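ARCHIVE CARD
Drawer: 12
Card no.: 0347
Subject: one protein chain, sequence and derived structure
Cross-reference: see card 0346
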Amino acid sequence: MTHKLNSLAVYCGHQFGTNPQFERDAVRVGELLARNKIRMIFGGGNVGLMGATATSALRNGGVVLGVTTHNVVAKQEPAHDEIEVKVVTGVNERKQRMYNLSDGFIILPGGIGTLNEFTDILTMQQIGESKKPIFFMNTAKFWESFSQMFLAMQDNGFIESVDDYHMHVADTPDELFKQIMNYEK
């Protein structure tokens, strides 16, 4: 039985990266979120891939909610000025708020923050605190190294099985949304 995902957190870079396909896929993901009436929860910034995804969702009639911290706004990323942005005290509160607001997660290319955000969800899955799905947008094979590392954890006895985690990987935004729309709980 498919399970409608009404709200997805999008974790991604606050920069565009070096491959132009990263931005194109981010824009397409925002468009598909809006077209499928899935609310986007994100880091609240108006820069890089996160800004491109949010702006695309908005331009296509989507609902977008940002969650950021005082430090992020003050030091790096201006908050997106076209949406409601909740400003919280610190990064742990931000992650918890985004988790609570979301039915699952889309992971686009990104840096250390993106890695931190989704590995927290994987840790919650490992200890039985979460079963929310994670959908990786593997643009230009960006997440291949992580996939190999995850298999190495399994092969070396650090995790039982990669199948114990609710992860889905797609190479294109359209393939990603086929998985999202056909998600079975």
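Annotation on reverse: The chain has a mean pLDDT of 92. The chain has one domain: 7-181.
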